[in-house]
Amino acid sequence: xxLLVWGTAVVAYVLAVVGRSALAATGVTAAQRxxxxxxxxxxxxVLSLAVYAALQIxxxxxxxxxxxxxxxxxxxxxxxxxxxxxxxxxxxxxAVCGRVLAGAGDAVTFVSILRLVPxxxxxxxxxxxxxxSGILGQLGQxxxxxxxxxxxxxxxxxxxxxxxAGVTGLVAATAALVLRDGPRAVPPAPDxxxxxLGDVVRSPGARLGFWCHLAxxxxxxxxxxxxxxxxxxxxxxxxxxxxxxxxxxxxxxxVVIGPVFGLLSGRFPHRRVALIxxxxxxxxxxxxxxxxxxxxxxxxxxxxxxxxLGSGGSASLVAFDVARSAVAPSQVGRASGVVNVGGFTSxxxxxxxxxxxxxxxxxxxxxxxxxTAFRVAMAVxxxxxxxxxxxxxxxxxxxxxxxxxxxxxxxLAARSS
Length: 417
Description:
Number of helices: 19
Radius of gyration: 21 Å
Oligomer: single chain
Order of helices and strands: HHHHHHHHHHHHHHHHHHH
Helix content: over 70%
Strand content: under 5%
CATH architecture of the largest domain: Up-down Bundle
CATH topology of the largest domain: Growth Hormone, Chain: A
Number of strands: 0
Largest sheet: none
CATH superfamily of the largest domain: MFS general substrate transporter like domains
Structural class: mainly alpha
CATH class of the largest domain: Mainly Alpha
């Protein structure tokens, strides 16, 4: 039964990721259909992520109050409606509305899975199952890039997106029928409201999870979302085919080492923060080496950069384990929402700062991109990561200081082990 429940939730997450990434896979057709520039289209992609980040805490509050079944099924309905609006929208503003709806449905799904999993799986297995949930969910990007994009070409925009909406709606109905909390569940806490959220925000462990998540995934997100391919091609003179392989390698690395991080998090819960800090430190060192290299960076060094950036995605999921161990079971959704804000905030910040720094150097257009300009712009990764590490250090001190409290003792003893 637990595999059926978990599998249904993961399928819902896959389709939520399809809703998130669909526009990236069919961007050329979208630009032609709505008669907008590439800059406007990229702004729409950033808007979707901004909606996702903004709704994380409300999503956490809702899943703690109403349970994972309602949120996952309701989220799938929102994604389905968003895809249908995008399919039928005659104008760009209506397409924006569709993207916002899909982003809202996506926002509630993964947080809900993080609350559902501990009710069905033994605590020591939860970190691994969370890693697998995140990895399998990213199959949605492949669905967008291959079958959905092929449908757009063969059957047209409207038919392709209505098909995606129909499949997502069917999964929403299945989720409503199949999903339920497991034997380890605690009743939702409908009376906590903002007071419950305040308790989570004040929890030293939840704050530590936030800083862990802020520091770890943004390097890989920025690399894969926008700036990895231009940096490799324009600054490091890597051939286009190789640059694309390296850019997608971040996801491949995450798939390969995610289960390892999950096993380590479950086996050594008291070393979770050290595991995350190791990934972030490796990213800082890799960026310093790459950005200070005289001349073109050897491909082997660029591969090493991709590997450590990919580790950040796996490390970011461990951050949820850190926070989950520090709050009451009825507050896991809130804690997950607070944590998830961190990485998306840092990702959006660095995506924007790289563009701003390129513009400031007179390299706003692709024709003006140079090795020096790009290296200066990408160097923003280092101070942001260092700020994240500093936040982790101060938050860890607060956790140690809270060792005598119930929450601090639970976290330090790794209650989830």
